[in-house]
Amino acid sequence: MEGIIINSLDFPVLTVITFLPLAGALLILLMRNNVLIKWIALLTTVATFIVSLPIYTQFDKTTYKMQFVEVHPWIPAWNLNYTVGVDGISVLFIILVTILSTLCVSASWKAIQEKTKEFFISLLIMETAMIGVFVSLNIFLFYLFWELTLIPMFLLIGIWGGSNRIYATIKFVLFTLAGSVLMLVGIIVLYYAGGKTFDILTLSNAIYPHHLQLWLFFAFFSAFAVKMPMFPIHTWLPDAHTEAPTAGSVILAGVLLKMGAYGFLRFSLPMFPYAVKLLFLPLLVLSVTAIIYGAYVTLMQNDMKRLIAYSSVSHMGFVTLGIFTLNQNGIEGGMLQMINHGVITGALFLCVGMIYERTHTRMIDDYGGLSKTVPIYVVFFTIFTLAAIGFPGMNAFIGEFLIISGAFKANMVIAAFSILGVVLGVTYMVWLYYRIVLNEINPTTKSQLSDLDFREITTLIPLVILVFFIGLQPGVLLSYMHVSVDHLLEHVSAENLEVYDSITLFGRYLKEIIGWV
Amino acid sequence: MEQYFIQFSLLILFLPLAAFVVQIFLGKRLPRQGDWVSISAIGITLILSLIMFATMLSSYDSGFSKEASFTWIDMGSFSIQLGFLIDNITIIMLVVVALISTCTHIFSLEYMAGDIRYSRYFAYLGLFTFSMNGIVLANNLISMYMSWELVGVSSYLLIGHWFEKDTAANAGKKAFLTNRVGDIGFFIGIMLLYTAVGSFMFSDIFEGVAVGKISGTMLTLAGVGLFLGAMGKSSQFPLHIWLPDAMEGPTPVSALMHAATMVAAGVYMSVRVFPLFSPDALLVVAYVGGFTALFAASIAVTQTDIKKVLAYSTVSQLGYMILAVGTGVYTAAFFHLLTHAMFKANLFYGSGSVIHAMHHALHKKHDHNTDPQDMRNMGGFKEKMPVTYWTMLVSTLAIAGVPLFSGFLSKDAILAGTLAFAQHHPAHLLLPVFGFGAAALTAFYMFRLMFLTFHGAPQMPELIDDIHESPKEMTGPLVLLASLSVFIFYTLPYVDPFSDHGWFTDLVVAGDSFVPGSIPAREIADHAHHAHYTAMYTSIAVAFLGIALAVMVYLRKVFSAENWVKSFGTLYDWSRNKYYFDENYERFLYQPFFRLANKVAWLDWDLYDKYFINGFGRFTDWLSRVTGRFDFEGIDQGLVDGTGRIVNYLGGTFRKLQTGRLQNYLLYVTAGLIILTIIQAF
Prior knowledge:
The structure holds 2 protein chains of 2 kinds. Chain A is mainly α. Helix content of chain A is 75%, strand content 4%.
């Protein structure tokens, strides 16, 4: 087969990291002792992380081809194979998943007192599903994992969530399911249009008629846009993030949202370049609307978790803005920003979770003067706040920077608006910081607050390291994605529609509409 | 020596950062809370800067320039290089930063003694010095922007040092956010230039401008964008609101950051990127600067808080520098930056010394209600605090533009440039009017400050016995900086106090703008030179006018200040209340902003989500009920069961036919036959 490099390691690395958490979950199923369960969960996630490391040392950065590929026949009658592999676009998400999962186990150590066993089983199944999404090279397999993420998350929110958890979890599942059902239809159509195959690479290399591309684009878009979530289908997010337990929020913000963006890069751009290019302007406008609108809504939140949840809407707007600029800087910035957002928002949810465990309130008004009561906590919170506002030398700066420089090439007006979004982002974070960290100590929660313990500090330190490492050495991460993004753009540019020229685009719209009528 | 400059610069940049790291992690556990770590780091920085400075003076080369870069990110088509640019402007600025920073460190030993976050304070000073030097050394817009933001954060941390006080925490927030507003422009400017030229390096950008890769409106926009950043940092109208509030920070910090160095970063940046400002952009710069100079001076005239007077004075002086950039004499702007750093830092230390004394005297009396910064509570401190008085007087003379002092030289250079500009562009007559007007007001309010604080009868006689001169850690920097406000340090190797010739003018020579069609630097300098004497006489005249007025009102009391207040009425109120800027911003900017945010949040949650999104749920719910009813009552009860019922009914009916009697069946058969026959017949 063309475009792949068969796994050169002496063990099936991707299959192992995908199913290792599942094996851990099965082991936990047999356990009764809660302490043992936690340790097994931790060991499983750490082991998965360690096993995932060879991918990064052995990864060939000079090729766009799929690497570590494993192919096994599955259902020959449908021409269906079990195919997994990674390229520069998916490779970085695996380590994001394995790191965040480990931290989630650690963060849930004390927070989860009831149904511990079930909780960690869900968490581990979640990890399998998430890794599966990023390594699948078969659209059928992809869809399986994609839907599999829903079940454990449904349970995580619905059982261990906050007071309004049932509403939130049903809303989450209905929203995402509605989107992915349309994707299923799209997949089936694609199967026939692309020559009766589920193989993603074959499907990407096929060329589809313009009209079909538009329909298929919308089918996939509905699934990805809900996951992202893009404006205006974002309102499941604040509820789900707020009601979820800390680990759930971290997974949701850190990984689940990225699946949508990953879908755009893996399916929409290579398979439907005409549709993407045709909808270039609307997609950019939608992104920048999400950035500014999301930031405005964030400003007015008085629940910390909700505030951070809404800020994700704004930040994911940057990611889509980057992806749909359709140039190197924008896409690489968008991908980097996905990792950054996973790190930073994950960290902020962990931070909020840590004080929530102590005080059982998430209301901003119940806090104040934290820098006096919990100084160590504040050091971490300050670092992550600065990272969140895109502070130079920290990771989000370089991501936003690349995105905006890409956006300037695409459309200056939209780019200028996105900078406004950056400033709004500073405003809500600084205001939050001012209200909870500075000022006088708030007597409401003073007595319950105690500073971070060893476990919590070790949970946060890896994220601090990532914040600075990516911020100061962004080239390391960018080098993984570079060649693949190049190849993707080459592929997209084969469709010759001049996107930077709005007048041509509007001309196309007229033509399309007339064609329809 | 020049070959080591890059290594020196690396040390100068990173030593304060190392001090910051040590202080943050270990500060509290070190003896004396580690203040010696910070002091030695900054001391070495100062020595290195002075070596560079001495080398510069000995080689006396106005064209000296050294650059070093490394590639930070390399992605083929897109790469970012970071690096240093060391020329005479850089070296002078490094000395300014290191010198004032060292003075601040030493001054703080006493001023901050016993503070609850003593080590943290020194740590932040280190962070600030690091980031400020980052701006100074940058040879590209990216590392400049990065340091620029870092400066913002250290300023935030230091203004909010006493964050328990709501005003302090608030002032920090205000400074940070106002700066960020300016930075939108800065960032847009950077991106416009990058998009057009494809590089962030100054040299590449200038070249790109020269060959016309970016020109016309775009270039003007980019220039104005960059300048917006400078407006934020250098506190120019209408973004000036944060600086007076920033005085909530400790006074040595005000001297270092909010008078001498950080706020000058905007001016420094404008000087660095001057060659790319288009004529239209320069006009914007000139008017913003000129207006700010006069506007802020008019506020300073009526303030009674000693630090607020100095704060508005700083805004006004920064306006001067910006005005100079706008009129093309950007070396004069940098000259004024240099002299202003010395005398304004000194004035702040002096005010710190006075506040320190007041604070201790009030503390002794257990009086915690009297404001130790209010000049109306002072008066007659001259004999009690001689060193503070005399050093402040020297700086006051310098800022007022009196001959023999440094401020006279630099202010004169600016005014000459402005006058020359107006002579060649008569439409812009307003610019020198701003300049000279501000000069007169400056002389007036500075002497007002001196007279109210040090002369006359004590306003609080019960305190005067407890007012003492500050200790050596505080007076040392005062004496040093006051002596640096004497003209001779700037005119050497010449000694003519009225000529603007000296090592500075020899070593810092304006280069041509890279914008095609601009006036060459040589010509601008000639014009300024011709206007020199006119400007000088006028500026001496207005300075003495201002001083004379202050003497008559506040020293001799020929006019009563109260009567003036009455006769000026509204104008006085406006000035006293800073033209109600904060109130109007609150009313017309912040509140509408939050109202909008509130509306959007409401729209999103209470309208969109609650009715539209949940509406789907409710609609589905309703639909399923209807369907359920239809299903149960219609299909199940009606159709399915109905079928059963019909069958049942029919069965019941037809059962009656099944009588089992043979006669009946025969009858049916016969009847059927008859019917069939009839049908057949037709």
